UniProtKB/TrEMBL annotation:
Protein name: 50S ribosomal protein L31
GO molecular function: structural constituent of ribosome
Family: Belongs to the bacterial ribosomal protein bL31 family. Type A subfamily.
PANTHER family, A to Z: 50S RIBOSOMAL PROTEIN L31, CHLOROPLASTIC, LARGE RIBOSOMAL SUBUNIT PROTEIN BL31C
Gene3D superfamilies: Ribosomal protein L31
Gene (name only): rpl31
Organismal lineage: Eukaryota, Sar, Stramenopiles, Ochrophyta, Bacillariophyta
Amino acid sequence: MIKKKIKWISNSIVIFNGKILCLIGSTKSKLKIDVCLLNHPFYSKNKAISNSEGRIEKFMTKYKLTTN
């Protein structure tokens, strides 16, 4: 089996939130990311807890379950 030669791009653009974040080496010319150290809760020390109560109640109602 013949392997396809992978083209390495040394100045790939990393895009976050519509803006160029940095340049890195990659096999793709443009990389779009959703999470980085700027918005990740671990790195930003954001202690916000997602509102999962509505989702839990919806699940409980859907499957006709009760909490004790």
